[in-house]
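Slide 14.
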Amino acid sequence: GFTFDILGDKTTILKGHYGQFTEAMLASYHDRLNPPEAYSDYIGYYWDPVGNEWIHWFTIEHEDLYRLDPDLKHPYMNQFTFGIEREMFKDASFSATFIYRDWKNIIGRIDTVANYVPVNITVPEFNNTALTVYGQTNVGEHAYLLTNITQDSSPYIMLDPYRNYWGIELLFNKRFSNKWQLLASYVYSQATGTIDNGFADDIGWGGSTDNPNYWINADGNSSADPTHMLKIQGTYVLPYGIQFNAYFRAITGYSWENRYRYRLPQGIETIMLESRGSYHLPIQKILDMRLEKTFD
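Slide 15: predicted structure.
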């Protein structure tokens, strides 16, 4: 990173930074490699109120289906920031910063034995939308490889696996002096990708990337895509040493899209009918206030 005093009087600073941040080393990378004998069967029942009895619903047997690519590379994220900060008055500054993040070495699973064929369907509940979905021809046959997925990893990875983020942050910072402080920021941003941005989506738990139905309309806004984010925090010291603190934030809600469930030979698939994250939940507004007094 660097900082540069543009005017030479320490009032206007140009700043830039590049960083590479690796994902944590988590046990979840290897969870599915445990041998079958390490688990018991997972058995589900449902209650039949007519027959007054529990009915067997399903049984999941843990099978030795997963392998880890011996050439697997650790996931990481590149971040670039570039901004300018200007002193407004004593103890106060205003800054504007551009932020860009790009995830690399995304881990996912591919299926080395499953075969799929296209199936054309129409969704009458969604304006008779025509879709091409994919049915498995050798149902029940699977052999998964956990690897750094690319579009060349498998013929059933239909899009380039990626995730990125960009944002512009405006920040006013009044450091504590004369009994008050204020921090106010606004961020306009977009998080996009064909791989979502949940906690473990880039380390192999980001959905059925081996299944071509996963990639239908997968390119779009990530689930956590706060287009607008406004935060204001302040403190003022009242008489008798009482501190008043307030924190207000207004953040765009999670994104969503219409989906459709359709039965194929391999079972019911949930398919995105439009680009990922086509809509957003309303902005959530929260205000916290606190009074604090310290006694000797």
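Speaker note: The mean pLDDT is 94.
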